[in-house]
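Archive entry: two folds, one per protein. Generate the first.
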Amino acid sequence: MEGFKQINNSIDYLEKNLCSNIKIEQVAKVAGVSKYHYQRMFHMLTGVTVAEYIRYRRLTLAAYELLKSKSKVIDVALKYGYSTPESFSKAFQKLHGISPSCVKDKEIALQAYPRFFLQIQVKGNKKMKYTIKEKAPFTIVGKEMNAAINMKENFALIPGFWDECTRMGLCKKLFEIQGDLGLLGVCFDVDYEQEKLTYLSAVEKPEGKSDNEYNLVEKVIPASTWAVFEVTGKMPESIHQLWQHIFSEWFPDTGYQYVKKPDFEAYHLKSVKNLEGKAEIWISIE
């Protein structure tokens, strides 16, 4: 796939410029996609953000250099993009569990974060059902939470948020007023520089005035062209797997790109207690 080749080219670029001031816009240009699409694609395929990958790789090479050479900590810190020995030491200790000055001690264990190389896996037994839709702007209403951009954490954190909404009775309320799209899990304001996003458990805003006993917020989903993917099975496992297939197979193969707008999951369940049924992933594309 040409998409995987371009991403691997961008990783080559990262590796060659780890001692330079790397601009994500330039890395995305090497991959032939927009900055936002590249950040989303890289994160979903690897489980880490581009910024995390750069940081881990720099600290891996820095540890090797301190171990194998007579370089001073301050020189290595500056070489790998840290303006002060203090900031370098803090980041180094967070990854390796020791300070840079202790690297030369005997029997010290260091963390090695290897270079990424993406490979195509021929699967062929997993079909993806999708449609391309145009949809006018619409308003949603729901409960919001702030989350960090960490795929593994959010795969646990967001189901926990839904559990909390269920315990407080909110899911039952949303289920009663849901529109044609069903129950919605919406990602807003995905920011890879700040490594954060806003997530909502929501529904389409119903007509008429509601009592808003749960302090719900309203958000507008802008008009867009959407790629809508369908899956049936047990939630959230089935929808997590669908996200992986979309980014590892559909995006690299089609040439579509992510647009920096909200995306959402739509759940068509028979009840809030039965988490098996049909769901959709809506992604804004160009």
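Generate the second and append.
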Amino acid sequence: MRHLMPSRRALIAGALTAAALLPTYALAQDAVTLRFATTEDPDRMQPVIDAFMAQNPGVTIIHESIPFDDFNNVLQARIGQGDSTPDVFTADMPAVSALVQRGFLTDLTDIVGDISALHLPASMEAVTVNGRIWALPVSTSSMVMYYNADLLEAADIELPGRTPEDRLTWEQVVELGRQAQTAGARWGLLWDQVSRIYQQQTLVESLGGGNGVSPDDELVLDITNDAWVQGLQFYADAFESGLSPRGVPGPGQTAELFASGEVAFFAGGPWWVSRLFAARDGLNYSFTPYPFFEGGDAVTPTGSWAWGINPNTEHMEIALDFVRFASLTEEGALAAASLQPIPPANVEALQTYINQPLFQTENLAGFGELIEYELANTARVRAPTMGWIQFESIINRSIEDIRNGADVRPALEGAAAEIEAAWSRLR
């Protein structure tokens, strides 16, 4: 059954009511330095840092930018050894359960109270472990299928519609992509986050394969069922056939191929509009809803960053205020999103985000409304398991092997054996 997003008035009324019930914290009068660790470039976090410090004289926030691949190891080396810093850090939402298992997060449940009216349901699901809230949602995500209008028109392809009722199947996208290649497009289809479970999970979930973990036991794996094999075989075939390019190293490079006019269909996130596409001269592009498999479910990726607090921090009240500012207030949530730019999880800030002028241009009319619809109806979180960190590393590597020609079922069986061996130490 589909559930529509509540009206803006209802969301804001609920958010204001919930915010009014939240406790407030008096900041210490002495000068305090708070250390804040993320995987983002320094400048992207500066707006929310500056906004908070402007309201709290005497507080200095130092941002530590740590490479994504090193982040968990840094947390282990510092918080795992009892270090009081970083005081606040960003947590990839599916990693929350793993961070709880390691003792890296402060239980915020009794401190923040009922904040369900302030955030999207999928975001709250992602930060809740065993009924307790361990981090506060700050950002979320969704994806659409962008298309190059010039390449499609050159192939006499009717431009796809922009509403949920216009959703293409993956089978149709493949057919249209090949048609565009015949007419001159270099590539027919490309995914934004190649070989990352964040995006490829939607292929197997559309076919009913699940998120890879049993709903009854977070340490029981399920990545070798027929839907997983079928979904990732589809992915493999796109590269094997030449519809999609091998050798593209990462998301920045995939988006650049589309922005350069080389790709007919690009399954990607809304962040690329302001970060790359809008400023690219000569790029005639628009969007259609994220595809699904014929006979399957409409499924879109979601999840992003939550902010957690180190249990060892020496500045708990100020850390709480900083996290609450970014998550529970419209001002803070919009400041956190301003240079990312990914949708804020705060429902009031989300309304401002989806109604921004950039999304009202002719080629993007309806863009914000579609993102809102997907977040309310088709968004699926990644597997909530204490073994997420091992799962993500191993499964991403296996998906990359599949992209480069490895046989699907043996690759998944090998990944399953490796993940289960790693998880055996968590029981």
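Annotation attached to the second fold: The CA atoms of residues 52 and 322 lie 7 Å apart. Confidence is low (pLDDT under 50) at residues 1-28.
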